[in-house]
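Handover notes (outgoing to incoming on-call)

Open items:
1. Acyltransferase family protein: sequence verified, structure written out, both below. Nothing else pending on this one.
2. Nothing else urgent.
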Amino acid sequence: MTTSPARLWFLDWVRIIAFFVLILYHVGMYYVTWDWHIKSPFASDAIEPLMLLSSPWRLGLLFMVSGVASSLMLVKTGAARFLGQRSVRLLVPLVFGMLVIVPPQAYLEVVGKLAYQGSYADFMRLYLGAYHGFCKGDDCLDLPTWNHLWFVAYLWVYTLVLGGLVAALGGSVDRLAARVAASLVGWKIIVLPFVVLAMVRLLLQPYFPTTHALVDDWFNHANYVLLFLLGATLARAPQFWPRLEPLRWSALGIAAACWATLTICFALPDSLFIAQALEQMWNLQRILYSLFSWSAIVAVFGFAYRHLNRDSANRRYLVQAVFPVYIVHQTLIVVMAHAIAPARLAPVIEALVLIVLTLCLSFAVVEVARRSRVLRPLFGINPVPAPAKTGRSAQEAQEATMQ
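Acyltransferase family protein structure tokens:
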């Protein structure tokens, strides 16, 4: 491809909104029965159906959008420069996050779950020494850890895969993109990717549970790298994206039906089924989960293409802000939840307080980081380019800091 495809503004908005949904989700994790770093004394299964509204599709959507963005950057920069830029953009915040941002989460986790009595300084000596003695039964906390920053590590690995494939395939990438786009028309847009994702889930998930540990997380790798590479491929086929708009309501209806059915399935006790029937129920859930995941992604893209395919000053600011917000948000939630727990606020009020404070403090971090040449790379914000030297317009220079 000799020229870059047009900017897909609506995908920037999708990425922005998805990261803010993540804040709501991680606040919710404090109040549900699912394992997390700390737990509210009010934790129950009450809001778990609401958590299910986003959990099947949110991360897959982010990996797919990241694939689109990575592919478009490759067109502009070439494979070698792209890999260098992306490695700096992802690995510097990852290392900084593991050393500075994430440790308070792990400290409060061992305080809450294991009644650890040491100071934070004592804990950090163990953390940096790769201590593996914080265990509850067979479940041990691996230190140091990346916690929610696993997404950054996985994204960097998939970036390497994409860069290697593009370098190896050359011009064949665009021909492949055209063939994939030609096959994804009408009902096939929903059915074909769903079938592939369902097969991956049926074949791999029973044997490779989620670990987010990179080296043994094979189901998640198969699932997410497929979506990442699909996004990277379709980035080269601009004719594909308008096809999602007329499917948006149908996809939303399918996703809603899957959510309702899964809510019932997850609520049924296992004791209702004999062993063979239980396995069949789990397979049905895996199929529904995959259909929910992909149809929700199609619906999100379709509605965003219809209503958000435009530029604005808000987009330019937020697309720069979401990555540093992502880096700090979970630590803020964990630390503040622990700090305000003695107030014994009603759960709804406490959750609202956590959401408001997380947003306010996250954007405060953004405002500080974007003004500092030292902090910008640590929080994944590109250095400010010099338009006078490069000859680029002010608009181009600003966009360059936000990729």
